[in-house]
Specification:
The chain has 168 residues and is mostly helical. Helices cover 67% and strands 5% of the residues. The protein has a two-stranded antiparallel sheet with strand order 1-2. A hairpin with a 7-residue loop joins β1 and β2. α1 crosses α4 and α2 packs across α3. The chain is elongated and about 70 Å long. It starts with 9 loop residues before the first helix and ends with a helix. The model has no long low-confidence stretch (mean pLDDT 82).
Length: 168
């Protein structure tokens, strides 16, 4: 097996990536190519190097998701609505769409029976409130979820260690 500088083989590293994706040791081990995934998955989760790698991957993923969320909320809060306005007043809305007008801030487009075009935008104030939460470190959800998963893995590892000591 090929070793990496952090001591994990390529297959072990793949296990960590698949575990991040599936949240299931059996599936992760099966997708990583282990012949006995039920045994390998639990065995891998009992190793500190594997847990550290999973924790690092969760952190990177969480950080990336937070950065993406901040970028999206900034676009909603401060972005231009000129593409939607051009679409609203255009004689040929399809041609305007083909020209590539940005509709990122648009929540809904309707065409009522009278043939007019209704455009609803995302709430800029809510986007600003979300951004304020990110700046104060008050964002909930993603990071809490990852911390709970890592805590669960550590609990399983602790139970297996205690059961192993009880058998001795």
């Amino acid at each position: 097996m090929k070793e990496k500088k952090d001591g994990l083989s390529v297959r072990e590293k793949n296990f960590c990536i698949f575990y991040l994706h599936y949240g299931n040791a059996f599936e992760a081990a099966a997708h990583a190519g282990y012949s006995q995934p039920e045994k390998a998955g639990l065995s891998l989760l009992s190793r500190d190097a594997i847990l550290k790698e999973i924790e690092d991957l969760y952190k990177m993923r969480s950080d990336r998701l937070v950065r993406n969320a901040v970028s999206g909320y900034e676009r909603l809060a401060f972005g231009s609505v000129d593409g939607a306005v051009r679409l609203l007043f255009s004689e040929d809305p399809l041609a305007e769409l083909e020209r590539g007008c940005s509709l990122f801030n648009v929540a809904e487009i309707k065409r009522p029976k009278d043939g007019a075009l209704e455009i609803k935008f995302f709430d800029r104030l809510k986007a600003l409130e979300k951004l304020e939460g990110f700046s104060t470190g008050d964002q909930h959800g993603i990071a809490d979820f990852y911390r709970a998963v890592i805590g669960g893995i550590r609990d399983i590892q602790g139970r297996e260690l205690n059961e192993g000591q009880a058998e001795e």
